[in-house]
Design brief:
The protein is α/β, with parallel strands linked by helices and 145 residues long. It has a single domain, classed as Dehydroquinase, class II (Rossmann fold). It is 37% helix and 18% strand. It is built from five helices and five strands. It starts with a strand and ends with a helix.
Length: 145
């Protein structure tokens, strides 16, 4: 199984950005954890991050025919990007949405998720463990080790 992990704006600042909400673990440490878990589960994982909406759309479009599943933390674009929703619908790849915090417990504007209209599962508020849970969900549902 081949899984694409996509992270949106400011996720690259993990460990620096609002540590009271997002913790002290750095983005490179998150990537190491994701890759170690993928190796343990016997799957291939590719991680992408961008602060630019169009780059995220490009990652999704390029995933067609290459990846069996997508784990996406669209970050701030969760609440604004119909483009991400449309790209996910176009490629039709099973997708799990991940949020480190629980947006439903934050400001009202964070309660809407356009990506959530497509994602078959959303994991909120489980910290960095949410990425592992999302990978495990895809592996268990769609085949893998």
């Amino acid at each position: 199984m081949n899984i694409l992990i996509i992270n949106g704006p400011n996720i690259n600042l993990l460990g620096l950005r609002e540590p009271q909400l997002y913790g002290n673990t750095s983005y490179p440490a998150l990537l190491e954890r994701i890759k170690a878990h993928a190796n343990h589960r016997g799957v291939t994982v590719t991680c992408q991050q961008s602060n630019h909406e169009g780059d995220l759309v490009d990652y999704i479009q390029a995933a067609y025919g290459v990846y069996d599943g997508i784990v996406i933390n669209p970050a701030a674009y969760t609440h604004t990007s119909v483009a991400l929703l449309d790209a996910l619908k176009a490629v039709g790849i099973p997708t799990v949405e991940v949020h480190i915090t629980n947006p439903l417990e934050r400001e009202d504007f964070r309660h809407i998720s356009y990506v959530g209209y497509y994602a078959e599962k959303t994991i909120r508020g489980h910290g960095l463990d949410g990425y592992i849970e999302a990978m495990d969900y895809l592996i268990e549902r769609y085949g893998g080790c």
